[in-house]
Amino acid sequence: MLPSMPRPDRERFLAEPRVGVLGVADSRGGDRAPLIVPVWYDYEPGGEVVVQTDRESIKARLLRAAGRFSLCVQDEGRPYRYVSVEGPITAIEDPVDPAVREALTQRYLDPEEARAYLVATEAQLKNDILFRMRPQHWRSADFAAFAADFAESGAETGGDAG
């Protein structure tokens, strides 16, 4: 069984600025696997996951068709941790409020880079829409306790087995 995070920890983890991996069912036919793409996102504990994309993109079309999506974020540093959420789309905002667009950009870039990015992509961002998702199902793992137990048992037995 995975060492899961308590609710406050997993919500704080999801609220940290990480690149998320969005997954959505691919309804284009055939034997396609779900579409899985990296995204910038926003989240505040107790709130909704927010993602922005071009209104005509494959991602936007699939999100509209599915009506729900998954998002997974991770910390690859030791000890490994991740949080995955899945739930229904609760709102689609078109157009994106410029303040929301700016806040999302500033979440990932320092102020000077954010300003330059917003100016450089102004025309492109006019085509963007926002999807809001209420997390309904959570999965998480935090191997910190496992790593501590492993380190302690290694210390008790004299370290390495070789």
TrEMBL record:
Reading the lineage from the top rank, the first entry is Bacteria
**Gene Ontology cellular-component terms listed:** cytosol
Q: Which UniProt keywords apply?
A: Oxidoreductase
Q: What is this protein called?
A: Pyridoxamine 5'-phosphate oxidase family protein
Q: Name one Pfam family in it.
A: Pyridox_ox_2
Family annotation (Gene3D superfamilies): Electron Transport, Fmn-binding Protein, Chain A (2.30.110.10)
Q: Does the keyword Oxidoreductase apply?
A: yes
One of the entry's Gene Ontology molecular-function terms is: coenzyme F420 binding
Protein's UniProt keywords contain Oxidoreductase:
yes
User: Coiled-coil region(s) at which residues?
Assistant: none
